[in-house]
Amino acid sequence: MSASVHVNDSEFEQKVLKASLPVLVDFWAEWCGPCKQISPVLDEIAKDMGGKLTVAKVNIDKNPETPQKYGVRGIPTLILFKGGKQVATKVGALPKSKLLEWIDSVVA
């Protein structure tokens, strides 16, 4: 996977929970400034970690069920899933180096 993928409520189980690779899910919205700030960083991570990690984006305005199910209250919320289970969560925009540290600590 070379770039991030957009996932909706109906695809979430198939593309995230049943994925063979760990999946970093970005819960975001068009109107969210920090979401726009972190988006290019997540795209870079998706390219850099292709084959090891998938980055999926869920627009909370268009897909309200999934964020509600996972208790997303603020955005951007990043949730790492591994083997179909939620293993780690971060809220807010972080620099690329901090994101990579966090991902490596969970995925490794």
Give a brief description.
With about 110 residues, the chain is α/β, with parallel strands linked by helices.
Describe what you observe in this structure:
There is one protein chain. By secondary structure, the chain is of the alpha/beta class. Helix content is 36%, strand content 25%. The protein contains four helices and five strands; from the N terminus they run E-H-E-H-E-H-E-E-H. It has helices at residues 12-17, 33-48, 65-69, 96-107, and strands at residues 5-6, 23-28, 54-59, 77-82, 85-91. A five-stranded mixed sheet has the order 1-3-2-4-5. Strand 2, helix 2 and strand 3 (54-59) form a beta-alpha-beta unit. The longest helix is centred in the middle third of the chain and has 16 residues, at 33-48. The two termini are 18 Å apart.
Chain-wise SSE layout:
Elements lengths: L4 E2 L5 H6 L5 E6 L4 H16 L5 E6 L5 H5 L7 E6 L2 E7 L4 H12 L1
Parallel strand pairs: 1-3, 2-3
Antiparallel strand pairs: 2-4, 4-5
What features would you highlight for this structure?
108 residues; alpha/beta; 5-stranded mixed beta sheet; 4 helices
Radius of gyration: 12 Å
Query: What's the β-strand tally?
Result: 5
Number of DSSP helical runs: 4
Cα distance spanning the termini:
18 Å
Beta-strand percentage range: 25-35%
Can you summarize the main beta sheet?
A: 5 strands, mixed
Mean pLDDT: 95
String of helices and strands: EHEHEHEEH
Overall geometry: globular
Structural class assignment: alpha/beta
Low-confidence stretches: none
Relative helix content: 25-40%
> How would you write the strand order of the largest sheet?
1-3-2-4-5
